[in-house]
Write a structure and sequence with these properties.
about 290 residues, alpha/beta, 8 strands
């Protein structure tokens, strides 16, 4: 099972929006040093929608090379085109990715049957582990539990990243999904509760900023030390909250720049963090020990 404290890695850029590959390498190494359990490359937080195909492939290849099989590298290959998702997944497999992360098709607004056949078609065409990604706040389509359970019966669909923050859905899937089907939280604010209910891990934005602490939180929760996990979650809560004061990854890229880890570049249509949020996010970084 693909479990643990996983990071949805940002794509660092310079002031003109060009990818800063040296900074990318440093970020990957920082995650490995922190004990992060898996790297998600080309996800939402990576601004994948505005990366070129060549940039997406270079980011994935570089992460695979740097990690050198120390941890799984999971490639975001989902799109609103089934064939494009198949092509991207085939390319990720050829480069050595350990799994894919497949976001629900956005804009098209498919039915539940459409979602089922979309994901099943990808899994049938590309023999590698696939993780579903349900984030209706962005895609405007919701992969319901019944469809998730239908897809869980497909051999190489191995899990789901659930970013709904709906704990009842987690309970339902814990009870009904095959035991080998991985349940991953996509919401930092409810990650501890998700683990307590029976989830297996999380894919985190906050882990970009606080990878050591998120790994400690995961270890505490899964080792039954819930008091320690809740104490860490309480400490990190200001960061969880403020990293979503504007659309992800605007705040997390500003935070990493403030920490001196990346430059401040971001691509349109996203814009740099509004000045009214600077002091509150800076305070959250200080309060959580990320800045002295």
């Amino acid at each position: 099972m693909l479990t643990g404290s996983m990071v949805a890695l940002v794509t660092p850029m310079d002031a003109l929006g060009a990818v800063d590959w040296q900074a990318f390498e440093r970020l990957v190494k920082r995650q490995l040093d922190a004990g992060t359990d898996a790297l998600i490359i080309n996800g939402t937080t990576a601004e994948t929608a505005t990366l070129t195909q060549e940039e997406r492939q270079q980011a994935l290849q570089l992460a695979i090379s740097i990690s050198s099989r120390q941890v799984p590298v999971i490639a975001g290959t989902g799109s609103n085109s089934t064939q494009a998702s198949i092509d991207a997944s085939k390319a990720a497999k050829a480069m050595g990715a350990d799994a894919t992360l497949l976001v629900c098709p956005y804009y098209n607004k498919p039915t539940q049957d459409g979602l089922y056949y979309h994901f099943k078609s990808i899994a049938t065409a590309v023999d590698m582990p696939h993780i579903l990604y349900n984030v209706p706040s962005r895609t405007v389509v919701d992969l319901d539990d019944e469809t998730t359970l239908r897809l869980a019966a497909v051999d190489n669909i191995v899990g789901i990243k659930d970013a709904t923050a709906d704990m009842q859905r987690c309970r339902t899937l814990v009870e009904a999904a095959p035991k080998q089907f991985t349940l991953l939280s996509g919401d930092d604010l409810t990650a501890v509760e998700f683990l307590e209910i029976g989830g297996h891990g999380f894919i985190s934005v906050t882990a970009n900023v606080a990878p050591v602490e998120m790994k400690q939180l995961y270890d505490a929760a899964t080792q039954g030390r819930m008091d320690d996990a809740m104490a860490l979650q309480k400490r990190l809560m200001p960061l969880h909250q403020k990293l979503f004061c504007e659309s992800n990854p605007i705040p997390v890229k500003w935070a990493l720049e403030r920490m001196g880890l990346i430059q401040g570049g971001i691509r349109l249509p996203l814009t740099p963090l509004s000045s009214q949020h600077h002091s509150e996010l800076s305070q959250a970084l200080t309060d959580t020990g990320m800045l002295s």
